[in-house]
Structure formats: structure tokens, C-alpha cells
Write a structure and sequence with these properties.
By secondary structure, this protein is α+β, with helices and mostly antiparallel strands. The protein folds into three domains: 137 residues, MutS, DNA mismatch repair protein, Chain A, domain 3; 106 residues, no CATH class; 63 residues, no CATH class. It has 14 helices and eight strands. The strands form three sheets. Strands 3, 4, 5 and 6 form a four-stranded antiparallel β-sheet that branches. The protein has a two-stranded antiparallel ribbon with strand order 1-2. It has a two-stranded antiparallel ribbon with strand order 7-8. A hairpin with a 5-residue loop joins strand 3 and strand 4. It is elongated, with a radius of gyration of 31 Å.
């Protein structure tokens, strides 16, 4: 998706400045952020936007129009709120992809998950914006971009490919290991006996353990595991994928046995790390082939919109609460910066509006202000009993 923002028009040349700590304190930025959200990530995102300000009238008008759409359509906020969960998943996948320790197999699987989330986000935004009478330039351009992506990227085929490929990768539910012990009963070598398409359950394992322990000869003679077939709940229909196959003798799986010196290393964990990727090489190749068809599909561009969507949704929710408490709020009419004029009717401290919306019994006194060539300075006087804030 083309680099896009709901905070400013494309190719905007607006200049920004950061509010000082003193200015943030005077404007009660922290108080406002806490009133907007209990989530730390959301508060940090909103704070970054609030403290980076511009005087560019095009940007201000752009944001006012976008916010007006968010405020007018609760359905828009509801749908995009549900999409935030998918965007949060994409953000976590992005972090995982940057992990140098992640194996190539898991990176491929997470690339699939990213694409699946991306498809869901595109589909949901497209459906939502097509069914709401939005007016703002920002949301209209977002709708047009999403429609273009959806129509030109073969989304139906992509979704089908993702579902099929993920199904293959997710068939493996458990691995049966054979563990050789030394004279002190410490793990010495480990081999993979079978791959299974069902998970083992604690109760099943415990029952079989007790059955073995109650036998007169408690130990199995030799290393033939064919007698334990019932211990592997496999589905024969998946045999083509390699699942449910039990080796009838641990010695036949010598290529999957790993030695461990008795230095405290965990051969079970080491075996899993080394064996799984090799066993699933066919799955890895299938995933790679599928991904190569959609190499340019990237969901992280939507992750960049997440803080902006949070910003508009939380402020729209707050404004609705303030209006419900009887305190006036309106959309600003943006004048050209060159005019250096500001006119306000019934203005008040937003912090007081938040307190009243939260249930405090306040009598908020509003004021009118006109700033133009004839009136640039106002002096507010009165006793120190907080009336000046009202």
C-alpha cells in the first residue's frame, strides 16, 4: 500500500514542533491520555501525536474532517476497534520476524500469519468504508487504496492459498521421541520415532505409564516399539504428509538421533530444535513456493495506521461522553494561518469537561474569546480558588 496517513495528506510539507515538558504539563497532556485509555501502548501512541504539533491549516482541516467521520459513525469505530486486534497481531509478528534466533521455518509460518492478517484487515476495512457515507478526504483515500489493493492482488486466490498452506503446516500436533539412557538413567541420545496429527493428553500418558508399571516385567525387551502403536493416535489419511508413521524399531531412525555429552545439556530440547525443521522440509518448500507468488504483499503498512486509528477512536469516545454530560463541543472552522485570527464561543478547560463527564458535580463557566488585530492579549484575574479554571 502506498505510504498513507490519517493524520496528514499525502506529500504534505507541514513542519512540526515538539511541546516542551512545561507546555505538556500546562495542557494536562498526561491527564488527557489517562482519560482516553487504560492501555499503555495506546496512551504512548496518543501522547506522541498530541505533543507533535503543527500550524499547517491543511493538516488541521484534514484531521478535523477525519475525526468528524469517526464521531458521526459509531459503526466505523466499532469495526475498526475489532480490526485493532488483528493489527496488534501483525505488530507482534513484525517483532518476531526481526528475531535473529527465529528459525527459517517459524519465520515462514509467521510470514503466512502476517499475510492472513493482512487479508483480513483489507477485507474488513473495504467492507466497512464501502457501507458508510464517509466524507473526509483521509478516509475516502483510504477506501480507494484498499479497493485497489483488493481488486488487483487476487485476494480470493491469496486467501485460499493461505488457508491450504497453513493447514499443511499446522497438521503436526505432536512428536514421539525415543530416549536412550546411560547407566545413571540420564538422557544420552534422542531419536524421533513418529510424527502425529493429534496431541497427547496427560491422562492417556499416565494411564499407559501405570499399565506398564503394573506389568510383572515392567521393562520392554529390546527396542521394538511396534507393540505401542495404540500410543500414537495417528490418522492414516495423513500418511502422505508423513504424519502418523511409527518406526518399528528405534534403530531404524538413526539419521534423527543426536548425541549429548553429559554436561547438563538438554538432549530433548536439542533434538526438537534440530529435527523439526529437517522433518518438515517439504512443508517449508511448500510455504516458500506459495510466498513467492505474493512477494510484494506486506501487512506492516497497516501496522503504521494503528496509532492513528487508536487516536481518533479514543477521542471520539471521549467527546461523546463529554457531550452527554451537557458540555458543548463543536467542529472547528479552520482559518488561513496568514489571517492570524481565532474566535471561540463557550470555551472551557478540557480537563474540567473530562471531570464532569466522569461524574464530578461541576458548574463549568464558559467564555468567549476573540483574537485578531484589535485583541491580542487577555488578562485573567480573580482570587486563587480555582474559579479562573472554570
Amino acid at each position: 500500500m502506498v505510504q498513507f496517513s490519517l493524520l496528514h495528506p499525502q506529500n504534505s510539507k507541514a513542519e512540526y514542533m515538539e511541546l516542551t515538558k512545561e507546555a505538556q504539563n500546562d495542557l494536562s497532556i498526561e491527564y488527557i491520555c489517562e482519560a482516553l485509555s487504560e492501555d499503555e501502548y495506546e496512551r504512548n501512541s496518543i501522547r506522541q501525536i498530541l505533543t507533535s504539533i503543527t500550524c499547517d491549516e491543511e493538516v488541521i482541516a484534514y484531521r478535523c474532517d477525519v475525526f468528524d467521520d469517526f464521531l458521526r459513525f459509531p459503526k466505523l469505530r466499532e469495526d475498526l476497534t475489532s480490526m485493532l486486534e488483528k493489527l496488534a497481531d501483525l505488530r507482534e509478528i513484525e517483532r518476531f520476524q526481526k528475531d535473529a534466533e527465529a528459525s527459517s521455518l517459524w519465520q515462514l509460518v509467521n510470514r503466512l500469519r502476517e499475510m492472513d492478517g493482512y487479508v483480513d484487515c483489507i477485507t474488513q476495512i473495504k467492507t466497512t468504508l464501502e457501507n458508510i457515507d464517509i466524507h473526509s478526504r483521509g478516509l475516502c483515500e483510504l477506501r480507494d487504496n484498499v479497493q485497489k489493493i483488493y481488486n488487483e492482488s487476487g485476494f480470493e486466490t491469496l486467501k485460499s492459498d493461505i488457508v491450504d498452506t497453513l493447514a499443511k503446516a499446522q497438521r503436526l500436533k505432536s512428536i514421539t521421541l525415543g530416549v536412550n539412557l546411560d547407566a545413571l538413567l540420564r538422557p544420552k541420545t534422542v531419536g524421533v520415532v513418529s510424527l502425529n496429527d493429534k496431541e497427547f493428553t496427560d491422562s492417556g500418558i499416565l494411564k499407559r505409564f501405570m499399565k506398564f508399571a503394573n506389568n510383572n516385567s515392567e521393562l520392554n525387551h529390546g527396542n521394538d516399539v511396534s507393540g505401542f502403536l495404540s500410543f500414537h493416535p495417528a490418522n492414516p489419511s495423513t500418511s502422505g504428509f508423513g504424519l502418523g508413521k511409527v518406526v518399528t524399531g528405534a534403530q531404524q531412525d538413526v539419521n534423527q538421533v543426536y548425541n549429548s555429552s553429559l554436561t547438563g545439556a538438554d538432549p530433548l530440547s536439542d533434538a526438537l530444535k534440530k529435527v523439526v525443521s529437517d522433518i518438515l522440509r517439504r512443508t517449508v518448500n511448500d510455504i516458500k513456493a506459495m510466498l513467492n507468488k505474493y512477494v510484494n504483499i506486506n501487512g506492516y503498512s497497516f501496522v503504521m495506521l494503528m496509532p492513528e486509528i487508536v487516536f481518533y477512536i479514543r477521542f471520539a469516545e471521549l467527546v461523546e461522553k463529554i457531550k452527554a454530560s451537557g458540555v458543548p463541543i463543536c467542529k472547528a472552522n479552520v482559518l488561513p494561518t496568514s489571517e492570524r485570527k481565532y474566535f471561540a464561543k463557550n470555551i472551557y478547560n478540557l480537563k474540567l469537561g473530562i471531570k464532569k463527564a466522569s461524574g464530578e458535580n461541576l458548574d463549568i463557566v464558559t467564555n468567549d474569546f476573540d483574537f485578531d488585530d484589535n485583541r491580542r492579549i487577555y488578562i485573567l484575574t480573580g482570587p486563587n480558588r480555582a474559579e479562573k479554571q472554570r
